[in-house]
Amino acid sequence: MTIANIDREFVQAPTNLIDEPALASRTEMDDAALDELARSIRQIGLQQPIGLARVGPRFEVIYGHRRFLACRMAGIVAIPAMVYPSKSDGLMAAQYAENRYREDLNPADEALLFAELLEQKCGGDTDRLCELIGEKREYVEGRLVLLRDPLILEAVRTKQLKSVGVARELLKITDEGWRKYYLEACVRGGATVAVASSFVQQWKTHYADQPQPPNQEAQNFVPVSVAASTFFTCVCCGGTEDPHMMETIAVHRHCRLAILNKLLAAYRGEA
């Protein structure tokens, strides 16, 4: 079913007969932006109708949830709306498209919405879900995978992680304790996808066989740049492992040449 072949009518729907969506696409809204929209509606009215579905004698919001809330705040008694006969698959597609392309959804909100649609409307069939919302499987699965870890989902929802790509990299760490360890590092340091990827490789190479990360180190864990994780070398031992444990030491060039290099050479038995 597509949006084009669903019967619908344009009406002025009484605000007191409209209910918020049972499955809201957003877990939170910006209060200041909502107030601003309400003020605009008071001044010039609602410029674009919302979408409603008939539910008995009442209506339920299908799309335009934010506009509906703003109209209610503005004291509007009747809202221009496109009214659909039921909440079909096509209406869910309309809801998704309205939110996806008019006002960006948080990826965590998308993950929750996709999961609901997958279970309630698609019988667990991911291909059907992709067809319903008009997205590629890779995109859909990239959102659904966020539900594997509530901490990562929350970090994405609250924008503590730079991107969904960082979250997907972290989910490659199969141990829950180590995944939390590196998540905290990524949040504190604002890690990029490349840095998160280097952490995953670090875990696989050095720590995958260790059951839990050390608590004290977890508190002091600071992610490093890709350059640091790839090129930094310890001046004492010459090793490149554990780049997150390295510290920056300020030293004059002439002091390094005259003193430090000689001390390090003696320490390594090279003098």
Note the main attributes of this structure.
271 residues; alpha/beta; Conserved hypothetical protein from pyrococcus furiosus pfu- 392566-001, ParB domain; 3 domains; five-stranded mixed β-sheet; 13 helices; 51% helix
Can you offer a commentary on this structure?
This protein is of the alpha/beta class and 271 residues long. The chain folds into three domains: 1-103, Alpha-Beta Complex (Conserved hypothetical protein from pyrococcus furiosus pfu- 392566-001, ParB domain); 106-148; 150-271, no CATH class. Helices cover 51% and strands 10% of the residues. It has helices at residues 31-44, 65-73, 89-102, 107-120, 126-133, 137-144, 150-157, 164-170, 176-189, 193-207, 215-220, 226-231, 253-267; strands at residues 9-14, 18-19, 50-55, 58-63, 78-84.
In terms of quaternary structure, what is this? single chain
Mean pLDDT: 80
- The rounded distance between the terminal residues' Cα atoms is 79 Å
Note poorly predicted spans. 1-5, 216-231
Q: Could you describe the largest sheet, including whether it forms a barrel?
A: 5 strands, mixed
> How do the helices and strands follow one another from N- to C-terminus?
EEHEEHEHHHHHHHHHHH
Tally of individual helices: 13
Q: What is the number of beta strands?
A: 5
- Integer count of domains: 3
Helix content: 40-55%
What general outline do the C-alpha atoms trace?
Answer: elongated
Structural class: alpha/beta
Going across the biggest sheet, name each strand in turn: 1-5-3-4-2
Beta-strand content estimate: 5-15%
